[in-house]
Design brief:
With about 400 residues, the chain is an alpha+beta fold. About 50% of the residues lie in helices and about 15% in strands.
């Protein structure tokens, strides 16, 4: 199966995923049937290394799948992005850690919660870990988890941020997720109570930022040379662009036949509604074109064996956060002109997209000021340093 075969297979299952969007919201979890179809389509193989039966694929194809999935069901697109990109991050771990996960089961999936909370005690051969980590999207469909924590010395001084890889037997999923938007993501809490994590199942921030990561010993594909900030952040924005596309399509469908209560005129004939449609469509197009262009250029650098220049990396982050901002702007433009009917509860595509994009906007990678400052500093020739670059 090629990466284009996977994209075609994902497109074929979109109608079924769209039909389950309301179910995902109702149960606060992507339906098992959807995860099964994504697995059979080969989606989770895209960023899985070839050493373990994956494709080590072009990241733009992965993001394109997320855009389409977000258009069918925002929660599904979001969860697919998180679980899918975690295969990429696992491929950066030491080969022994990858073998622990994919050796017994090549379809194993990994959820994540990287906020550096919890308590860590360093031992001679590993670490002991305890705490509660929130917002682990898709955790109901994962057999492993990657969680973040800060290792400290005996006086409590921070030494290093590390990512810890745990099997599901070492943590508990506390199903606390009940939100206005992205309800189907099942972004629940992970609870860890004094478990041992062997040293080989951890990855330090310095290792993650290095050009030569432990996983490169078995995974030579160029995609694993990408900076964390390029792929991880883009995987958050791509499904949001798809959600905006769904909102745009739903708006046009509804407005083609809608008659305004005041005056009895057709909304489709209203020049102001036409202008809103034009602006929204342009925002969505700009979001996707810049997002995909930048990731493609970073990937080209990796294929040439080069480190992408800082100007490209800061541009990617600039356009990634603005892709999210544009998606939100587009949906707001449409929602403001959609009338009271758009506020009715039920299986309302436009309203769901409106709730979903605003919820997704709150993700830490979508802070426009922080990302734009990085671009501005580089543009002015100042030093730039950030883990999301």
């Amino acid at each position: 199966m090629s990466e284009q075969d996977v994209l075609a297979a994902v497109l074929r299952i979109l109608p079924a995923i769209r039909e389950r969007a309301a179910e995902a919201e109702a149960q606060c979890c992507v339906p098992a049937a959807t995860v099964k179809e994504l697995t059979e389509a080969g989606f989770f193989r895209l960023l899985q290394p070839r050493h373990y039966g994956g494709l080590g694929a072009d990241p733009v194809v992965f993001l394109d799948c997320l855009r389409h999935l977000g258009r069918a069901c925002g929660s599904t697109g979001w969860v697919a992005g998180v679980l899918g990109v975690n295969a990429w991050q696992l491929a950066l771990f030491a080969p022994r850690a990858q073998e622990d996960v994919w050796g017994p089961d090549r379809d194993a999936r990994v959820c994540v919660s990287l906020a550096p909370v919890g308590q860590v005690t360093q031992l001679a051969d590993g670490y002991r870990l305890s705490g509660r980590w929130s917002f682990s999207s898709g955790s109901d469909h994962a057999g492993w988890a990657m969680i973040g924590a800060i290792v400290r010395d005996g006086q409590g001084k921070p030494l290093e941020m590390r990512t810890f890889l745990l099997p599901c037997s070492d943590y508990r999923v506390d199903r606390v997720w009940d939100t206005v938007g992205l309800r189907g993501t099942g972004s629940n809490d992970l609870v860890v109570e004094d478990v041992f994590v062997p040293a080989h199942r951890t990855l330090g921030a310095s290792q993650l930022a290095d050009r030569n990561r432990p996983g490169h010993a078995v995974n030579p594909e160029p995609v694993y040379r990408l900076p964390l900030g390029s792929l991880f952040t883009s995987s958050i924005s791509a499904p949001l662009v798809g959600m905006a596309e769904a909102a745009y399509e739903a708006y046009l469908t509804a407005m083609r036949t809608r008659i305004r209560a005041s005056g009895g005129s057709a909304v489709a004939e209203d020049p102001f509604a036409q202008v809103r449609a034009g602006r929204a469509a342009s925002e969505i197009d700009a979001a996707w074109l810049q997002l995909s262009r930048n990731v493609a250029e970073v990937y080209d650098s990796a294929k040439r064996g080069e480190q992408p220049p800082m100007r490209l990396r800061t541009r990617l982050r600039r356009d990634q956060v603005l892709a999210t901002e544009r998606a939100v702007t587009a949906v707001d433009l449409l929602m403001e002109n959609a009338g009271g009917g758009a506020m009715r509860t039920g299986d309302n595509v436009l309203q769901r997209a409106w709730r979903d994009v605003h919820t997704g906007r709150g993700h830490i990678t979508n802070d426009p000021e922080k990302a734009l400052v990085l671009f501005g500093r580089e543009a002015f020739g100042l030093d730039v340093s950030d883990p999301m670059l």
